[in-house]
């Protein structure tokens, strides 16, 4: 307010919306993108705010299917807020420390699509992710296991020899519509979407996370894309300035 000449890339209040994993995905759940060469969904999920001993009963009452991905509810930039766990049985969930978000695990062939948004620019990269969990494995394995972050640069799968049915990027019209709608609903320009394709389904996708101002340095050509974005903001600002009298 004191310096109106300063360009605000993204309002702080809008950024806060992505600090809560429950609210961040609600905007995706409200979308209807069925006319864009695919379907975008959100995994079934529930929030646990307190009393870890009651988690098994809460999961049973909610009817969530195992395995479950457990994530801290609040994303505050700390290493702890990015800790992820995979639970094979509901009774082991009592080992977790609320507040947590529990999300049904969707088999996706071990590949995650990271969709980077920089204004109107969309860039997609593949990352290795968790392998599919078979019914046999689910019947034999018990416990809650911590797994590493799949967003690290070392996990890039863009140059790997992958099954085309798994590695094929989501349809461009779907990504453009999703990015446009989320930019409008979130009121943000700099974020990324973590998306998976349901294994065996060519056109069914799930958004499992949205991150504000992600590690753009892991994205190919980020220097040029980011510079072009900043220049376009300045050009847009110049066009909006009132013409001065000669």
UniProtKB/TrEMBL annotation:
GO cellular component, one term: cytoplasm
Cofactor binding, note field: Binds 2 magnesium ions per subunit.
Obligatory cofactor(s): Mg(2+)
Domain of life, source organism: Eukaryota
GO biological-process terms attached to the record: inositol trisphosphate metabolic process
All copies of domain Inositol 1,3,4-trisphosphate 5/6-kinase ATP-grasp, residue ranges: 37-231
Signal peptide: none
Amino acids binding Mg(2+) 2: 209, 211
EC numbers: 2.7.1.159
SUPFAM superfamilies, sorted: Glutathione synthetase ATP-binding domain-like
Binding-site residues for ATP, renumbered to this chain: 21, 71, 103-114, 129
GO MF annotation terms: ATP binding; inositol-1,3,4-trisphosphate 5-kinase activity; inositol-1,3,4-trisphosphate 6-kinase activity; inositol-3,4,5,6-tetrakisphosphate 1-kinase activity; magnesium ion binding
Binding, 1D-myo-inositol 1,3,4-trisphosphate: 82, 114, 211, 215
Chain positions recorded as Mg(2+) 1 binding sites: 194, 209
Keywords carried by this UniProt record: ATP-binding, Kinase, Magnesium, Metal-binding, Nucleotide-binding, Transferase
Subunit structure and binding partners: Monomer.
PANTHER family linked to this entry: INOSITOL-TETRAKISPHOSPHATE 1-KINASE, INOSITOL-TETRAKISPHOSPHATE 1-KINASE 2
Family: Belongs to the ITPK1 family.
Name this protein carries in UniProt: inositol-1,3,4-trisphosphate 5/6-kinase
């Amino acid at each position: 307010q004191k310096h109106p000449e300063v360009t605000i890339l993204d309002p702080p209040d809008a950024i806060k919306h992505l600090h809560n994993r429950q609210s961040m995905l609600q905007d995706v759940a409200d979308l209807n993108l069925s006319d864009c060469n695919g379907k975008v969904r959100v995994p079934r999920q529930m929030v646990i705010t307190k009393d870890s001993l009651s988690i098994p009963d809460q999961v049973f009452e909610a009817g969530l299917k195992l395995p479950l991905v457990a994530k801290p509810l609040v994303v505050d930039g700390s290493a702890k807020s990015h800790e992820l766990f995979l639970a094979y049985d509901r009774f082991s969930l009592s080992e977790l420390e609320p507040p947590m978000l529990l999300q049904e695990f969707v088999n996706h062939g071990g590949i995650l699509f990271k969709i980077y948004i920089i204004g109107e620019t969309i860039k997609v990269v593949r990352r290795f992710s968790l392998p599919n969990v078979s019914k046999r494995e689910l019947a034999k394995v018990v416990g809650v296991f911590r797994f590493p972050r799949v967003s690290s640069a070392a996990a890039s799968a863009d140059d790997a020899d992958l099954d085309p049915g798994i590695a094929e990027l989501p349809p461009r019209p779907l990504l453009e519509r999703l990015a446009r709608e989320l930019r409008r609903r979130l009121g943000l320009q700099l974020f990324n979407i973590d998306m998976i394709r349901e294994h065996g389904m060519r056109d069914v996708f799930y958004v499992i996370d949205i991150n504000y101002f992600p590690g753009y340095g892991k994205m190919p050509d980020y220097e040029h894309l980011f510079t072009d974005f900043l220049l376009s903001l300045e050009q847009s600002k110049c066009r909006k300035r009132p013409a001065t009298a000669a």
